[in-house]
Specification:
The protein has about 190 residues and is mainly β. It has no helices and 17 strands.
Length: about 190
């Protein structure tokens, strides 16, 4: 079992020393794993954990309390030691999902500090990364490139169909489905009638 821990803020920042990745072999007792530090010497704040079909563990990050470390994706092949696999340019918060049939294929949905969001795909474990088309929100008054409506700091969802890697889902305010690996999108929910 793996768990990610972040801070909590209610006027004071709580849990700074507990930020990190934890592992348990029995589901009861967890041990904090060694994890690289950000460029300013602070802990990376984990956001998402995924396990690939070859048992590689991937951890994506979000910016920490000090505004550093977002948009990073780390990989562990032994479940204990993590190395940087990819940095999302201008990344703030990242969601990842692994293919159910190919351990080298991953999708990334990222909040950026320059644009609202971006979607990426790799088929070779981040040796190359391709930017995918963004869904176009059908509600009135919503920018075509921001289906999260500036709420990507907490409204991000990314999933892949367990039976077909070409079918992926992304979500912000509304949900979208692609049947061609993110080339085209269909909106499958509608929050507002505007």
């Amino acid at each position: 079992f793996f768990a990610a821990a972040d801070t909590f803020s209610s006027g004071a920042i709580l849990g700074v020393n507990e930020i990190g990745i934890y592992k348990s072999t029995n589901g009861t007792n967890f041990t904090k794993l060694a994890f690289p530090e950000t460029e300013n010497g602070n802990d990376y704040t984990p956001n998402d954990i995924e396990i690939a079909t070859n048992n590689s563990v991937y951890v994506s990050t979000t910016s920490n309390t000090f505004g550093a470390g977002g948009g990073k994706i780390f990989q562990s092949t032994d479940g204990n030691t993590f190395t940087l696999a990819h940095s999302v340019p201008n990344g703030v918060r990242t969601e990842i999902v692994t293919s159910k049939s190919d351990a080298n294929t991953l999708y990334v949905l990222a909040q950026l500090n320059t644009d609202p969001v971006a979607i990426y795909k790799t088929i070779d474990n981040f040796a190359t990364v391709t930017a995918l088309a963004l869904p176009d929100e059908v509600d009135n008054g919503i920018p075509a490139n921001d289906f999260t409506r500036a709420q990507a700091f907490y409204d991000l969802l990314l999933r892949v169909d367990p039976n077909d890697d070409k079918i992926i889902y992304v979500g912000g305010i509304d949900l979208f489905r692609s049947e061609d690996s993110g080339t085209t999108w269909n909106q499958i929910s509608k929050w507002s009638n505007n």
